[in-house]
Amino acid sequence: MTTTRRDFLATALTAAGAAATPGMTAHQHDHEHEHQAVPSDFALRVKSLESLLVEKGLVDRAALDALVDAYEHKIGPRNGARVVARAWADPSYKRRLLTDADSAIAELGYGGMQGEHMVVVENTPAVHNIVVCTLCSCYPWPVLGLPPVWYKSAPYRSRAVIDPRGVLREFGLQLPETVEVRVWDSTAELRYLVLPERPAGSEKLSEEELAALVTRDSMVGVGNAIPPGQEARS
Amino acid sequence: MNGVHDMGGMHGMGPIQPEKNEPVFHAPWEGRLFALRRAAGAWRKWNIDTTRHEVELVPPAEYLRLSYFARQFVAFLETLVKSGLVTSTEIETGTPAAGQPKLNPPLTAEKAAELVAKGVPTSRDVKVAARFQTGQRVRARNMHPVGHTRLPRYVRGKTGVVHRDHGVFVFPDTNAHFLGENPQHVYSVRFAARELWGQQAAPLDSVYVDMWDDYLDAA
Question: Rounded to two decimals, what is the model's pTM?
């Protein structure tokens, strides 16, 4: 078992490209040659694995296609934006969302994998919330889709808990010390969605127009909703 | 395990690099791998905690060097072989071993849609007494299990307050190693930022960590 583990890693890593952080490790020099051939090789290895699993009858290609299609085309941050817009437009919905997020989100038809147990936290003039998963990359898929690379990467995961204000500055948000910053580390199976503050000047907008102001970053807590009239900048 | 995956509070990882108009998958293989892991998972030979632990076992230098999906690929190969679903020879040759009947995949396209829509809840509807109440002061245990745990190093030994009881959930530390679900209460525990990081932290700030009963003592 121990030998297969090492062989396996050796084989897998020969192909493993996509360096997360160039210059991070002493291995870089050793692997330099392999790196150049990486992208196609890696693609080939996954293709070969898929063929093997299909041939053995372990997986069904139609199921694979359905899964890719769901997360590439159907599930994404526009779902979460609709939840936020409804909460801004309807105070009783907002109350339900903050007290029983699962059923409130299900009212709009969303839920499922990696969003089985949802919690929504509200930004106010006095409180700013930011979500991270320091241990891996937990993220509320049904409302935000799959996480962006920066959310899964070491710089964000390491610093969000120790220096949230520095992280927020990097995203362009400067918060005064009078605002309380709450960091939510997704260490269990609860998945967090930030309800951003409703921007000033949005009072007369329809729910659909409101949803256009809600960015993915604002629902992770590393941004604010867009002021009306500035949507093109999102 | 005290692995490099447990990176809350570490320094030196560089700037955050958001990408404009980022695609869901940067190459088709990332999507195929994402789907393969879910489809093979339907055999129920492992659970979500097993797969997380397998990623933690990627050697630290490689863990940091590899992209998210590259790490997942390495871990997935390990998981497949350990589960007995495939052999390392089959992976090396890309060909099924001779004389094996072809199986019927448990995850059809229809079941995939159901999986996406319903997920795999890890809460358990069993009566387990809660060891702590909302508002109670608690201390995270100073423990260093070599196996899987969801207790980050940066809270161990620190004192916080129970903010909310989320109910009863499967316990990852045992579930990852097939030692039982051991369902117990999970709490959102609020730690003052200064309790965790000292005077350099802003006075009002805090970190909320979701913690199982077995991670906590009364303080």
Answer: 0.92
